[in-house]
Structure formats: C-alpha cells, structure tokens
Specification:
- With 524 residues, the protein is of the alpha/beta class.
- The protein has 4 domains: 131 residues, DnaA, N-terminal domain (GMP Synthetase, Chain A, domain 3), CATH 3.30.300.180; 149 residues, P-loop containing nucleotide triphosphate hydrolases (Rossmann fold); 70 residues, Orthogonal Bundle (Helicase, Ruva Protein, domain 3); 89 residues, Chromosomal Replication Initiator Protein Dnaa, Chain: A.
- Strands 6-7-8-5-9 form a 5-stranded parallel sheet, with helices on both faces. A 4-stranded mixed sheet has the order 1-2-3-4.
- The longest helix is centred in the C-terminal third of the chain and has 18 residues.
- The chain is flat, with a radius of gyration of 30 Å.
Amino acid sequence: MTQDFPFEKFLKNQEYKTNKNKDLLENIFNSPKSEKEEVVVQNERSPGVNALEPITTGLFEILESKVEKIKFDTFIKNKIELLEITNEEANFVAQTKFIKSTIENSYIDSIQKALLELMGTNYRINIVVRTENHPIFNNLIIDDAIIPKKSNKPSFTLDLSPKTNEVADQAQSRFLDHMEKETSGKTIDPKKNFENYIVGPSNNLAFATASAVSDSPGITGKYPCLYIYSDSGLGKTHLLHAIANGVFENHPDLAVCLISARDFMKELINAYKDKTLNEFQRKYTESIDVLMIDDIHELKNKNSTQEEFFHIFNFLHDKGKQLIFTSDKSPDKITGIEERIITRLQWGLVIDIQKPDFETRTAILKKKAVELDLFVQDEVLNLIASSIKSSIRELEGSLIRLQAHAELMEAEIDTEMARDILKLQDLNEKPAATLESVCRASSQYFKIAVADLKSKSRNKDIVRARHIAWYLSKNIVGVTFKEIAQYYSNRDHSSVIHGVNKISNNLKNDPKLSKDLIFLENSI
C-alpha cells in the first residue's frame, strides 16, 4: 500500500459522515504525484482503519438507492467487497462464482455509474472470487481464514459439487426472476390464456366476464368497459393477456393494445419530447379497437397524462371500442386521480378478485408442478397451500425455489425441505391448526356456540357452519373423515364426507362461501 494515503485525516476525523466521503476521496486521488506514479488504495486489514471504508460506504449507499431492495440484499450487500482501487480500475471480490456471474451480467453498469457519481472517474470493474488464485490477492494482507496462505507444495483440487451458499444464491435468483412484477408493455404472452388460468370461487366472476369480453369485445358485447382490481399477484395481468389472446383468436381483424400505465406515460413523455403528440393521439384514437391498461392507479398525480387519457377514454368509448383496466384497488379508493376519470372508470363493470381459497391454491400448485415437470407429494403441496395464502405469484415461486434446490442438491422434495427452504414456520407463526381451533374459529365467526356445532341440530345456519368447519378440518388440519366424525359427537363418517363434498360443490357458484372460508383460514 502506498504511503500517500492520509491516515491522519481519518484517525483525527472519527465522526465523518457519508456525504463527506467524496471530499476525503478527492484528497486521496488528487494528491501530488509524478506522471508515472499511480495511487493504489487497498483493503488492508491494518489495526483500526480501513482505507476503502469511505468509498465502500458511499458506493453501497448509491447502489441501494438505485437497485431494487431485494436484489441489492441478495446480490450486492455483504456479497461483494471492494479490495483495491487505482486510477483506472476498481477490483472487487465476490463470495461465489454465481455472485460474480450475476454482477458481471446485470450490475457492472450500475457499479460503474455509482463510482462515477462518487469519485468522478469512470473505472474499469474487475470481479474475482475469493477462492480463485488471482494476482489481485498478491499484495493484500487479508485474514488467513478467508484466503489461505500459499503453500510451497503444489496441489490441485477439483470440486464440482455446488457449495451451500451458491445453491442458495441460484435458487434465490430463479425465485426473483419469477417474482419480479410483470410489465405488460406491448408484448402479449401467448402462454397466458384462459385454458391455463385456474378458476375458483375467488375469481370465477372475473374469469367469466373476461371470457365474455374476448368473445364479444366493445359495443357488440355486454361489457364495453371493464375494471378488474385485486391485491398484487392474484392473476389480473394473466387475465389481460388471456383476453388479448382470445380477441386475436375470435376477432383477428381487431387491433389490440395491452400496455402498463407506466409505459403509457413514458410513451406520452417521449411524444412531447419528440414533438410527435399528434401521432400519439392518432394511434390511440384511430388505430386501436381494444385498449387494455394494466395498473391504471400508477397515473396518480400525473396531471398531463391524466388529461390525455381522459380524452382518449372519451373518444374510444363514444366509438364503442373495448376498454379494460386493472388496479390494486377499486376506482373510488384511488388517490391522486381526477374525479372525472374516477367516474368514467366506474361506468362499466367493476369486479374484484379475492385471495384464493385452499382448494384453489392447491390446484394452482399442481398445475405449476406439471408445468415445471416437477414431482411433488400431495402433503408438500398441502403444506405450501396452507402456509402461503396471499399471492399466486408467491405460491408458484415457492415451487420454483424448491425445484432449484432439489436439482442443485440432487435431493427429493419432502415436507422437511419445504419447511426449511421456504421458511414456512416463519410464514405461519400461529400454532398448527387443530380440530379444536377450527371449531372455535367457526363458532366465533358464525356466532354459533361450540356445543351447537357439535350437536345434531338441523337448523339451516348451524348445519352450514358445521359443514364449513368439517371442510376446513379436512383440508387444513389434514385429519381423516373418521377423526372429524368422532370429534363432532361421534357421528357416522359418511355424514362428514357428504358435508365436505357439499361445501366443495357449492364453492364453484357461491362467492360469499369463498370469502367465509378465506377469512376463517386466515384466522385459524
């Protein structure tokens, strides 16, 4: 390490802040030197000081503000370390080869820009792995526990088995690729159709309406304006693609535009910038028969975009074109949108998609397992379905993560692996459901005494509540029909089978029943 680095400034100024790092760094790199002299700052493990600390701190703060948090935490934070910086190069060490590959493929530009912002210099970035024998390590004093000293005895080791942290990194990467929020843009995915959309009581109305729209879009159909809302990850975007594919198949002469609200806004901004607003307006008013905008709530507080959208909506609606919008909330709950636009969004049919019930979640997992060509035992699928309740995307992502671990570790997927890899015990902090907890939850929810639920009363409300408790006991607790029958006053188990089957059949046509089941599942 050069002797030019001003240790005294760091030692005297113990309270320097991140926003002062740049000034400190300028003192380092602008210090007088001959033309041939090159300043090299290394990550030397000297007592009480780390010369690269201000650079690293400032760099990571910039990256954290520019890279999506979950990806920053997974691939950058504590996964790479700045070891050396010269006039032209910044050398980093990565924990694993997978981290190195990910950084080189996806984050080199981000690191370069962050260093440029921090240091005022465009550095060439080099990434090495800790276990590699690389010249970058030759002059560095690094903890022996991290990089062993060289031995005079020649040795050669070939280990093709993936390390535990590398397996975890690769599995996490597949999971993140799946979980990343879909942006519609203008590309319609032919794989997202009505045939592979899992229908349950939580989404059957939205599915039926979307199918009807694809058959008869615009003024020729029943729903020329459709608004679908739900929490993230429950299948809204899949329905949009399914409608688009259905329209292409049934009405190939119609022009379909599927775009996210954010991309719509970007397109308008570019039209302003390029002075092509007339072409933008002509495209949306004269060239489109079916306009679908995903995540319409993202237009909030964008006054110019809202103004343009208002006129496009009116023009297309007056011409009898098909309009479809999705959002994470109902129109009246969106803030930052003009009242006249809210009113128009409510002109057509407004439908919500609820969280899927246990049966639908299990069906989704089975479909995804087939899609991945992955064998998973029913008890594993039931465990996942009973633990992950809020998002279809997360449900499917759990199988992708399990598949990655199973392939990389060459192990069979079982409940123990699922609990460990998916941290299901953390997702479900409540005690495991029991016959008693289901019975008490049903009693409280329906305001019917436990004794009445266990009795042989034929009162209509009591019978319905009892059958729901049996259904939940079978599907969530996982007990046998005989055990349920014994708990409920030693009934004949055929009565329980009849009650559970009745609830399963009614789910297809009873949205209120689905909401009751979802509420109870979350409370048990």
